[in-house]
Amino acid sequence: MRILLLGHYEIASNLGLSLIADALKAHELRIMLSAQPSPKADTPAALVELARYESQLCEVLDAKARRQGPYGFQALAKRTGHPVAILKNPNSDQGHAAISRFKPDLIVSCRYRRILRDEAIALARFGVINLHSGLLPQYRGVMATFWAMLAQEKEIGATLHYIADSSIDTGAVIAQRSIALQANASYLHNVLRLYPASQHLVAQAVQQIEATGKATSMPQQDAGSYFSAPQSSDLARFEQKGLILFDGAELDAVIS
C-alpha cells in the first residue's frame, strides 16, 4: 500500500514515525510534517523551551545520519525514497494537491498538528488513522501525558483510532496500549516510552486494512475529557508536584 505518514518536527513525532516506518517497511511511505515548531506569542516559556529542546534533538539525530533507528528525518527521507515535505494546511487546494500527488491508500498520523477536514480525509481510499499519545476517551486533546502526570495516574497509554471527521480524538478506537507511568521521570521521557510500546498497533491495523479494507474498531461510548495546552498556572502546579517537562540526561539513549 501507499501510506502517507503525517507528523511534526519534534523528537516525539520523530521517534514515533521512525518506529512506524520500520514496522511498515514493506509499504511505500511518504512523510509530511505540519511544520517546524513556531510557538504563539502567548505560549508559556516552559513550553517554548520544551519545543526548542525537541527540535534540537531532531537536529542531533539528523547529524548522526543513523543507519539503524531511531532515524532522523533526513534518514527517514532516504529510507522512504521521498523527501520529507511540509504540509502546513492539508485542507487548502494546495494541501489537497500535495496529498493527491502521492495517491495514498491510507494516511497514518502521529502527532500531526493540523485538523484534517472531510475533503482531506477522503483523499485516502482507506481513510485516516491516528496514534494518539493518550488513553481515549479520558485524555483527548493536547499533551495527554502531561495531564495524566498532573492527575497522578498510575498508567499512561496510546490509542490508535480512526479520524472520520474534523472533531478531535473522537473517532472509533482500533486499539490501545497502557504502560506504567514513571512519576520520577520527565514528561518527555514518559511520552517517548509510549512509541516502542505501541508501534505494533499500527502495523497490525495496517495489515488488517490491507486484507479487508478496514480495521476492527469500536465507537467511543463516553464523552470523555478534552485538554488544551497547559497554561502557566498548570505548569506551576506540575512543578509544585516535583514533576519536570524534560531532562537531557535521561534522553541520551534516544539519540546515542
Strand content: 15-25%
Strand arrangement in the largest pleated sheet = 3-2-1-4-5-7-8
Distance between the termini: 32 Å
Q: Roughly what percent helix?
A: 25-40%
SS element count, helices: 9
Which outline best applies?
Answer: globular
What does the radius of gyration come to? 17 Å
Low-confidence stretches: none
Structural class: alpha/beta
Main sheet characteristics: 7 strands, mixed
- The total strand number stands at 9
The ordered H/E elements are EHEHHEHEHEEHEEHEHH
* Average pLDDT, all residues: 93
Describe the structure in your own words.
By secondary structure, this protein is of the alpha/beta class. Helix content is 39%, strand content 17%. It has a 7-stranded mixed sheet. A two-stranded parallel sheet has the order 6-9. The longest helix is centred in the last third of the chain and has 26 residues.
Write the layout of secondary structure elements.
Layout: E1 2-7, H1 11-23, E2 28-33, H2 45-64, H3 73-80, E3 85-86, H4 93-102, E4 106-109, H5 118-121, E5 128-132, E6 140-141, H6 144-150, E7 155-163, E8 173-180, H7 187-212, E9 226-227, H8 232-240, H9 252-255
Main attributes of the structure:
single chain, 9 helices, globular, alpha/beta
What is the structure about, briefly put?
39% of the residues lie in helices and 17% in strands.
